[in-house]
Amino acid sequence: MIHLTRQEQALFSVLEQNRGRVVPREELMEQAWGYPGGRSTRTLDVHIQHLRKKLGTTQRIETIYRIGYRLAG
């Protein structure tokens, strides 16, 4: 069993609901954190990094440079 923080779980949930689709950074921030779109923050990148470490190879989170992230489908 993999232990995710509440915020990691919220982020993973958004990615899972949109599996195979590129989710823009702004949309991830809005849905997982409730932040208005357009805010530039490294918080998202750090949480994605933590998710990748915890999930290992069970789920592949792809970075779409300057756009967002995608959970491989």
What's the structural blueprint in terms of helices and strands?
Elements: H1 6-17, E1 23-24, H2 25-33, H3 43-55, E2 61-64, E3 68-71
Antiparallel strand pairs: 1-3, 2-3
Tell me what you see in this structure.
With 73 residues, the chain is of the alpha+beta class. 47% of the residues lie in helices and 14% in strands. It has a three-stranded antiparallel β-sheet. Strand 2 (61-64) and strand 3 form a beta hairpin. Helix 1 (6-17) packs across helix 2 (25-33) and helix 1 packs across helix 3 (43-55). The radius of gyration is 11 Å and the shape is globular. The model has no long low-confidence stretch (mean pLDDT 91).
What is the count of DSSP helices, taking H or I runs of 4+ residues? 3
**Helical residues, percent:** 40-55%
The helix-strand sequence is HEHHEE
* Major sheet: 3 strands, antiparallel
Query: Would you tell me the overall average pLDDT?
Result: 91
Strand order in the sheet with the most strands: 1-3-2
User: What is the subunit organization of this protein?
Assistant: single chain
Beta-strand content bin: 5-15%
What is the overall silhouette? globular
Detail the poorly predicted runs: none
CA-atom Rg in angstroms: 11 Å
Estimated structural class: alpha+beta
